[in-house]
């Protein structure tokens, strides 16, 4: 199933030849497996309806990465990448009434993206590649906390705990991979768009939408277990 998914993405991305020729080109099998770790920062916010005026919350993100390169199609290297990450999400509100009051919600997630990995550039030896990663992501809320310095205003989201722990959405991004004799170093930017709500969203509930979104910048280090 994974192999079929990779082939499908490669074909849609290139769109250059007919299916018989594609099959022939995809006979260039690769078996590169690498593991490592990643870390960086994220700027998160939430999409709420009714709208909540907010600013992005800066927080850390870090975790483990595993990548398998299985095919080469023309000059495009195709594979799959999985991660297990900690992600700090949430949002921040600053009142504009001159009081300087602040509300901040921090939400701590364990997230698992499963990504199609595409790379363009040097295949062997040291050098640079341009990489693209895109796919679904699921997450599990491990905990949350509030910093509430607002005394003059009370809003629906204040003191309201997340009612749904499971999160899912789509993530994707691109960057540069530098291949060296001691491993692979990747610098990547990524965007996550949440498709699920963390508050209940039935007709009787106040919020009809409450979903996460964030952009992140991270550095990943990988070393080969199988070339």
Secondary-structure topology with pairs:
Layout: H1 2-14, H2 19-25, E1 29-49, E2 57-73, E3 76-94, E4 102-121, E5 127-148, E6 166-180, E7 183-194, E8 209-226
Plain-language structure description:
The chain is mainly β and 227 residues long. Helices cover 9% and strands 63% of the residues. The protein is built from 2 helices and 8 strands. It has helices spanning 2-14, 19-25; strands at residues 29-49, 57-73, 76-94, 102-121, 127-148, 166-180, 183-194, 209-226. Strands 1-2-3-4-5-6-7-8 form an 8-stranded antiparallel β-barrel. A hairpin with a 2-residue loop joins strand 6 and strand 7 (183-194). The chain is elongated, with a radius of gyration of 21 Å. Residues 12-22 have low confidence and may be disordered.
Strand arrangement across the biggest beta sheet: 1-2-3-4-5-6-7-8
Helix content class: under 10%
Q: So how many helices?
A: 2
Which outline best applies? elongated
Bin the strand percentage: over 45%
Q: Which residue ranges are poorly predicted, with pLDDT under 50 across at least 5 consecutive positions?
A: 12-22
What kind of sheet is the major sheet? 8 strands, antiparallel, barrel
Q: N-to-C SSE series?
A: HHEEEEEEEE
Question: How many beta strands in the DSSP annotation?
Answer: 8
Distance between the termini: 22 Å
